[in-house]
């Protein structure tokens, strides 16, 4: 119903006319700031003698928007089992695909699903992002980090598309998160530290709409006290939640009233129960029936009215003008870009690029010089180490050479001694053999004499 509502609003010429006037005024100030020759030529209002036709611009905007379609991205943050998927099905009166998650997830992961919806010839590309495993771990210190990283990744993707030379933003699928429905467990006491820390980390990056899930679990009196307690804790901890805008007179009254009902206490159900002569979405209990669309039972109708039918476009606008611009500014400042020089004079993108390039080249040369000096120093140190090692090798070589000579001398002396012993042994052997031969010869002559004597 949002597109039809916005179309009627634009056709009435209220907010759209004011936006057109502001855009013209901003363009005039831009021209005067960047083109001094036009600064002395203020715009003047002149009457028209007849109908020209530019009063059809709101109609043109509506037709163009309807033909192009709209996109809306919702992030559901909350512990497993609080009915996030059921509430999404109830909000958009359909059945989205998905299976219930278990409580045994090792970490927090984000699951994104995109759907094409159509109502009264108005097309809506809806993306629902669910935090799987949020609050299921024993250590919950870093549970918010995957959520923050996911939101920043969508901002970064859009920024990269913006910085391209050839941009296609008119066909670009914008995945930036427009609304964060933060599901609070119906404890009836106070917010958990996990809820406070997570919302504090997300409030500068996304529009947070806190809701009390399964609010039929506590009584009306406890629910009223619980709402007051939640609001007090959010204020005391400096958590900035999304406030429905009151600057547009067409919705100022209803938004001001609904801001006092935050956080919304909701009940979701896709089951239809017959009450009287009509079928209504409700939850049946042994003690009675809770009607989802009965404002006396829960705030589901208020949530649907504020989120979809009245403020969807403002959520999209706040995402772009506030949260994305903050991310873009911080990112460009980190990259060294700035709007003014030290004298507060305008600084063009070319000048910024040249300054950054010169700064980069200076840093590069400085690093090159440092690396060169470091290289020279290391070469000198290496040469000194090599010289010292060479000196040690020479000393070791001299020691080994001297040791080798000493051992060689000892071996030569031992060899000479052995040679002398061998010669001595040979001489003794020769003498012994000579004596043995002489003895044999003497014995032989004696034997001959005996034989001769016997014969005689």
UniProtKB/TrEMBL annotation:
Carries keyword Metal-binding?
Answer: no
Q: Which GO terms describe its molecular function?
A: GTP binding
Question: Which segments does the entry list as coiled coil?
Answer: 350-428
Write down a Pfam family by its short name: Septin
Please report the stretch or stretches of sequence annotated as the Septin-type G domain: 68-334
Residue ranges for the region (Disordered) are 437-456
Name a biological process GO annotation.
determination of pancreatic left/right asymmetry
Concerning PANTHER family, the annotation shows: SEPTIN (PTHR18884)
Q: Which family does it belong to?
A: Belongs to the TRAFAC class TrmE-Era-EngA-EngB-Septin-like GTPase superfamily. Septin GTPase family.
What's the name of the protein? Septin
Which lineage do the record's taxonomy fields give for this organism? Eukaryota, Metazoa, Chordata, Craniata, Vertebrata
